[in-house]
Amino acid sequence: METNKPTCCSASRASSEQPTTNPDVSGAVEISVAASPQGTEGMVLIPGGKFLMGTDDREGFAADGEGPVREITLKPFYIDPCAVTNAEFKQFVDETGYKTEAESFGWSFVFHLFVSEATAKLVQNKVQQTPWWWVVEGADWLHPEGPDSHIEERWDHPVIHVSWRDAAAYCKWAGKRLPTEAEWEFAARGGLAQKRYPWGDELKPGGKHMCNIWQGKFPDKNNQSDGYAGTAPVRAFEPNGFGLYNVAGNVWEWCSDWFSPNFHVKGKRDNPVGPPSGDTRVLRGGSYLCHRSYCNRYRVAARSKNTPDSSTGNIGFRCAADVK
Ligand SMILES: [Ca+2]
Ligand SMILES: [Ca+2]
Ligand SMILES: [Cu+2]
């Protein structure tokens, strides 16, 4: 049996040697922010119905629980065409004074190549299994590479360094919610059945880059032939058949479900919401760090996970909403 290969693509607070108790939010489940409901304007209405979820692809990671392929039925729902941007997140913070978990902890995980020389001198912790993830003090959504960085030119990029709780708080403020994992995959497939990617089975049809992942030799040489070393604007590349942008690559996206590698094997097939409890939440879609040689998790059936308090430079989210 294949061992559970570490997701090179994300680092967890639990794996760091930094203090892991967030003084502001430990144990806090309720998120109290004043709501500013946005309605469903601009969202994509996904009709619902039946689809084949998961994959038995031999190129996949069976230990992640990508299979078995199963028929899932969903009721209609709305989903955002794009990940939440820095500009949108700023509006949320401006209105509510919300403080992210990365800010409360005082640090977040930054990919090593993005850290300035000055900041690198201050870095004391790296993740053992995935040493390209550095614990950077003062890294947060406004300062994605550390205190000497800023998002000035990146307002239309996905917000990063947001934990699952931060994402849930934003959704609550916006009168929305995170998508379930099944909703995310239904929407990401764009109406295609059992294709490897949101656009088909070929990674680069006609030699064309369809998403923001890694080219070159991970983790030191990124040729960035797709145009981006880090995040890309949320509307970069072509949307899928449902009009969703960057479901594959760019940033991992939080889903509402707790993660389990096997709960779904016997779980319900009608509007599934995942296990009743867990330690980690589901991430989908892969990121700008994924590369075929070690982590082809930009495939549409690929899965990952992280603890709800974790934040990194390659995790963001998009919102969903009920059809009323
Ligand atoms: Ca790239
Ligand atoms: Ca993505
Ligand atoms: Cu990856």
From TrEMBL:
<feature type="compositionally biased region" description="Polar residues">
    <location>
        <begin position="1"/>
        <end position="24"/>
    </location>
</feature>
<dbReference type="InterPro" id="IPR005532">
    <property type="entry name" value="SUMF_dom"/>
</dbReference>
<feature type="domain" description="Sulfatase-modifying factor enzyme-like">
    <location>
        <begin position="41"/>
        <end position="320"/>
    </location>
</feature>
<dbReference type="InterPro" id="IPR042095">
    <property type="entry name" value="SUMF_sf"/>
</dbReference>
<protein>
    <submittedName>
        <fullName>Serine/threonine protein phosphatase</fullName>
    </submittedName>
</protein>
<dbReference type="InterPro" id="IPR051043">
    <property type="entry name" value="Sulfatase_Mod_Factor_Kinase"/>
</dbReference>
<dbReference type="GO" id="GO:0120147">
    <property type="term" value="F:formylglycine-generating oxidase activity"/>
</dbReference>
<feature type="region of interest" description="Disordered">
    <location>
        <begin position="1"/>
        <end position="26"/>
    </location>
</feature>
<dbReference type="InterPro" id="IPR016187">
    <property type="entry name" value="CTDL_fold"/>
</dbReference>
<dbReference type="Pfam" id="PF03781">
    <property type="entry name" value="FGE-sulfatase"/>
</dbReference>
